[in-house]
Specification:
2,3-Dihydroxybiphenyl 1,2-Dioxygenase, domain 1, globular
Length: 178
């Protein structure tokens, strides 16, 4: 059995601000938006960045106050490449509503962790060329170019006992899960 994560429903306080942040800053699109059970009921909005999914997020306007949630640390999204991770960092910094921006690498991924305007944790990441045994976490410098960052990542994590090409790791996972 293969299980694919499909979407998350997040309770929100300010629907318009959350939609604005997720569409203008993170590139999502609203696919539907309406009261959940007719006029006078809480509003629900559906957002996606994937044309093959009706929604990756649903926002339900029922949260009483914003601030850090204690139910979920973060949701993670794989993006195409390091350029997209860096562009996300730039967009977040320019917009200013995201907080707790933290570029973190686990050796196998270059990530930007942050919280949205209502305190929900998010991670946007791309794979590095390497697999590294986990857990690992250290900050990385977004000003490095890809060649510099790759060399730094290999130097930083190369002595890890499970260090190797990420493609080899994924191949072994495919065999294991087949």
């Amino acid at each position: 059995m293969t299980i694919e994560f499909a979407h998350a429903l997040i309770y929100v306080v300010d629907m318009d601000d959350m939609i604005d942040f997720y569409t203008d800053v993170l590139g999502f699109t609203v696919t539907d938006r309406a009261p959940i059970a007719g006029e006078g009921s809480p509003e629900v909005a559906f957002l996606t960045s994937n044309p093959d999914h009706h929604h990756q997020f649903a926002f339900l306007q029922t949260r009483k106050e914003s601030g850090d949630s204690n139910n979920l640390n973060h949701l993670a999204f794989r993006v195409e490449n390091l350029g997209t991770v860096k562009a996300t960092i730039e967009a977040l910094e320019a917009d200013g509503r995201a907080t707790k921006l933290a570029p973190v690498t686990h050796g196998n991924a270059w990530s930007i962790y942050f919280t949205d305007p209502e305190g929900n944790g998010l991670e946007f990441f791309c794979d590095t060329p390497f697999h590294v045994g986990q857990p690992q976490a250290t900050s990385w410098d977004p000003d490095l170019n890809e060649d510099e960052l790759t060399a730094w990542t290999e130097e930083t994590f190369g002595d890890n006992s499970r260090f190797g090409p990420i493609g080899d790791f994924y191949s072994s996972q495919q065999e294991l899960l087949a």
